[in-house]
Amino acid sequence: MAEDTIFSKVVRGEIPADVVHQDDLVTAFRDIQPLAPTHILIVPNRAIPTLADVSEDDEAVLGRMLRVAADLAADEGVAGNGYRVMINCRNHGGQEVYHLHLHLLGGRPLGPMLMR
Ligand code: 5GP
User: Fold this and answer.
1) According to the 3-state scheme, what is the secondary structure of 97-111?
2) Domain residue spans in the chain?
C-alpha cells in the first residue's frame, strides 16, 4: 500500500494544508502553487497511486471525487463561467505526486486544453 505520500499526510492532518472539504472518502485542499484563482486538489483518503491503478472497488470514491469537484466549483463561484477538472497519470501525463488527485481549476479563462 502506498500510504505515505505527501497527500496522505495532508489527509491525516500531519502537515498543514488549506483543506476545503473532507468526508469519509475524499479530502480537498488548495494547491500549494496555484495555476488559477481556484486550484483545488481532490484526493481519495485511501491512497491509490494513479488513475491506472483503480479497480471496480474504487468506483464510489471516483464518483465522489467528481461530485465534490462540482460542489466546490459552485462554492467557489466558478461554476457559472465554467472550469476544468484534470487528472495527470504517470510519466507522460505529467504526474508528480503518486497519490491519485483531481485538479479543479477555474476563475479565469484557462486557454486551450494542451500546448501544441
Ligand atoms: P501533478 O503534477 O502530480 O498532477 O500535481 C501535483 C500538484 O500537487 C501540483 O500542482 C503541486 O503544486 C501540488 N503539491 C505538491 N506538493 C504539495 C503540498 O505539499 N501541498 C499542496 N497543497 N499541494 C502540493
Assistant:
1) CCCCCEEEEECCCCC
2) 1-37+84-101
Closest among 62, 54, 18, 97 to 10, alpha carbons compared? 18
| Any atom of ligand 1 within 6 Å of the Cβ of 96 | yes
Q: Is the CB of 8 under 6 A from ligand 1?
A: no
- Cα(30) to centroid(ligand 1), Å: 9
DSSP string, 59-82: HHHHHHHHHHHHHHHHHHT-TTT-
Which parts of the chain have pLDDT scores under 50? Answer: 1
Domain range 1-37+84-101, CATH class: alpha beta
Catalytic choice (39, 99, 101, 103): 101
Q: For position 3, what pLDDT does the model report?
A: 59
CA distance 91 to 112: 21
Q: How far is CA 110 from CA 6, 43, 54, 67, in A?
A: 27, 22, 28, 21
pTM as predicted: 0.97
- How far apart are alpha carbons 90 and 106 in whole angstroms? 23
